[in-house]
Amino acid sequence: MLAFIVMVGAIIVGFCYFISLSLKDEIDMKTMAFLYKIGVVLSVLAAIGFTIYIGYRVSVSERKLLPFSVVFMSVGVIVESFRRSKDWKIIAKNFFISYLGSFFCFLPGKKERVYDFENHIIQWPYAFLLVYSLLFFIRYKEKITAKLTEGITLLLSISMLYWCLDVGLFSDFDDKFLVFLAVFVVFSSLASIFYILTDIELTKKHRLMLSIWSTIIILVFSIDNIYNVYNKGDLESSKLFSENFILAVQHFLLGISSVYFVQNAALIFRFLPSKGGNYSKDLAKIKKEHIYRYSDQQVDSYLAFLCLVYSLVLYGLNMKYHIFPRNVMIWFVIFTFPMILRLSKIKILK
Fold this sequence. Notes:
Blueprint: H1 2-22, H2 29-60, H3 69-85, H4 88-101, H5 117-139, H6 141-144, H7 150-167, H8 176-197, H9 204-230, H10 241-269, H11 279-293, H12 301-321, H13 326-343
């Protein structure tokens, strides 16, 4: 019932906005603003009421419905959003719309014969993250799509080789598919590293290939991170500070990687033909996007050397001493290296 009320509030917002557009020639701006504010106020009141009810159900339930790890995931999403947009107004607006949109997860599923409200509460935070990431990408794609560079691709390629070693991709030579996959990954990684460390001109073709390869790597890391976090449990499941700290870092990085997952999944899956679309035109458009997002400036030899040392040292230490899980170390390196360069007043990103 409460979910229905929230959706009604959202519909009212849309209805008021539609009416204001339809009658913009007949009513003044003050009336349009008033109609819009009515819808917003009703939606806010409905959302507050529904949130209070969710809090009540969480407090009386014997199950752990909202783990504390949700806080770290949300912080990760917000931090990465601000790092990309540099605008708190964009983040606040996107947060509010996503918060309302996440309530749709409380609708019963088609195959759900017995409605379990508590199961929907468990799904709610993840629905919010998904809606937030999708909306952030769709509405503010130009602001949040960072330009890739040779330095970033170098860092990703080294990380990909470390990932293959850690998952044991090179240990099973009886499976032909795994052998093919290993050869493809090694060849692509080493080729990109060799290309980056040389002075070969960055043509449009090369920028397209490097952008696609970088996008694939980030998508793989995002999926791997999501899978590993879901299989590690929640913060409340362990009493050891060290384990809770690692879990907190994992969920924080999951929030960050969720933004990258949506962006890079869209950039890859748009290569697939769509029904009723003009594939040649769509293909040309997505190619231009990849070329545009890749900088034509070549990485400085000093930065390339610093990237190699930083990533190889951390990955080598982690393989020997198992400091962090694989997914945590990879995202830690990817997230911290550009920050270190900024602190040193050295920029990889233009």
